[in-house]
Amino acid sequence: xxxxxxxxxxxxxxxxxxxxxxxxxxxxxxxxxxxxxxxxxxxxxxxxxxxxxxxxxxxxxxxxxxxxxxxxxxxxxxxxxxxxxxxxxxxxxxxxxxxxxxxxxxxxxxxxxxxxxxxxxxxxxxxxxxxxxxxxxxxxxxxxxxxxxxxxxxxxxxxxxxxxxxxxxxxxxxxxxxxxxxxxxxxxxxxxxxxxxxxxxxxxxxxxxxxxxxxxxxxxxxxxxxxxxxxxxxxxxxxxxxxxxxxxxxxxxxxxxxxxxxxxxxxxxxxxxxxxxxxxxxxxxxxxxxxxxxxxxxxxxxxxxxxxxxxxxxxxxxxxxxxxxxxxxxxxxxxxxxxxxxxxxxxxxxxxxxxxxxxxxxxxxxxxxxxxxxxxxxxxxxxxxxxxxxxxxxxxxxxxxxxxxxxxxxxxxxxxxxxxxxxxxxxxxxxxxxxxxxxxxxxxxxxxxxxxxxxxxxxxxxxxxxxxxxxxxxxxxxxxxxxxxxxxxxxxxxxxxxxxxxxxxxxxxxxxxxxxxxxxxxxxxxxxxxxxxxxxxxxxxxxxxxxxxxxxxxxxxxxxxxxxxxxxxxxxxxxxxxxxxxxxxxxxxxxxxxxxxxxxxxxxxxxxxxxxxxxxxxxxxxxxxxxxxxxxxxxxxxxxxxxxxxxxxxxx
Length: 652
Hints:
Layout: H1 23-30, H2 42-52, H3 57-73, H4 78-99, H5 120-130, E1 135-141, E2 146-150, E3 160-173, E4 185-187, E5 191-193, E6 197-199, E7 211-219, E8 227-232, E9 236-241, E10 246-251, E11 262-270, E12 275-280, E13 286-291, E14 295-301, E15 310-317, E16 325-330, E17 336-341, E18 352-358, E19 367-372, E20 385-387, E21 393-398, E22 403-410, E23 413-424, E24 432-437, E25 443-448, E26 454-460, E27 469-473, E28 479-480, E29 484-495, E30 500-506, E31 512-515, E32 522-528, E33 531-535, E34 545-547, H6 553-560, H7 570-574, E35 587-595, E36 604-620, E37 627-633, E38 636-641, E39 645-651
Antiparallel strand pairs: 1-39, 2-38, 3-36, 3-39, 4-27, 5-6, 6-36, 7-26, 8-9, 9-10, 10-11, 12-13, 13-14, 14-15, 16-17, 17-18, 18-19, 20-21, 21-22, 22-23, 24-25, 25-26, 27-35, 28-35, 29-36, 30-35, 31-32, 32-33, 33-34, 37-38
């Protein structure tokens, strides 16, 4: 029998019915309420309320709607019918309290004090006749053991529901295997996820990788006839024309296509024609310019990137190292500065890369020399140099060979500066002068100071290296661990290829990432109210939180991996005991962080297998497979287990 449909809206409450009229006819006609057919026994009680109680229609309608909604939502069990009888009693009491005494002549029944063909006495009688739960049990059975359960009320056809306990010990989870579409991981730029996670060979590699022209250029002849130096990020390109002494800005429309850049009209500054080279700090709030004769100036920009807001903030003298400074680079710390000097005359009688320190960050008036490189007379001729932010390498333009050269040095020690490789740009530029190597190691821009008056774009193939890049499980990759008890072991599927992969875990929905160990857990990265921080303390059990250089989870993980105590390898993870695994919450996420030092070789991660214990499950047992049930007479039910089982049963 199908259930009747409840009206989508409740009409106005019905008028009090005429005594003796079937109340269901009235309610159905008025569409005031619609009672689930399984709970017809509530009808008489509602009839009594409307018929006898001196209440306002609004009150009655509200009460009837409440009980109706509950009736429709209920299941069909006798126990819930009993609950509704109790609900009716509460309803009765509220009605009496609101309406006052019932009319004279009422014959009280044992439950509601009302008499009616459809009174709540019928509910009580029906429940008594059906009997509700006649027995229930929770018991352990040996295989083929039979137990008998007496019934509280005799019945010819008992209904038996039985569940079995299923222990969840040593379960396996492989949700962290990398899907073919990579949807289970969010990967940092420079990695790719497509069945495995590894470095993306298409995004650019190390400085010493193979470089090729992108067939992309930007005409800058409108700035003047001598474009000599440049600097750019994903927002702006700045070009210095030494003929006019002006630094002008372009808006970068496409970071990977410099030709789409457009002039930012008015965003420029004239620093005189003596200017030879320039740079900006990463925040674009300080501009540094070197001048012929051996001087350096800094300018503060009150609006980041807006050259029109630049104010002269200091001057320094670097003439003791040469009179022809060509380029300048400021390191992320704001105090380390490099200047390439193109002079072969006294005092140094050599072209050189000179390292300086500022006793006050970004204040060139406090500049002092740290060291100078070996002679670059034959390596760099009439060009410029750029030192990379990690101070381990540098690029230069060599106009004599129309090429870009790559150098390495040991941790910022310019005395160890050594030429490694080079690539030619002669097909595009016969007078290359300035260059800028992008921080993400994907592109180099070269500006031609001769007839081309253009900026040329070059790319590298190979894997990005000497950087820690990460992949973090996405919403699809997050594991629900609400009913897990603990982790027994975790095994990473990885191919290191002599490179690096590290793992960390979050049990609080990616707010904090931790590494487990035999000494306990260590928090290595956290989102502190919107600021991503990493634990910079070298001691495992101590926390010192430092803001990440890049305010993202990826940025914080990259910074964290520079601390040995934050590194957890796959072999160390596999060696952890059950008691040493990460503590669980309601969810579990994984971060995979990897690094390569070779643009031709990448480590590979393909997944992680987890062995865990979980809460015991109650699973519906199958008659004939898990147990056999019979009723020898109307007073008992017998259950026989077909295996060693813990069973829970209910007999109605």
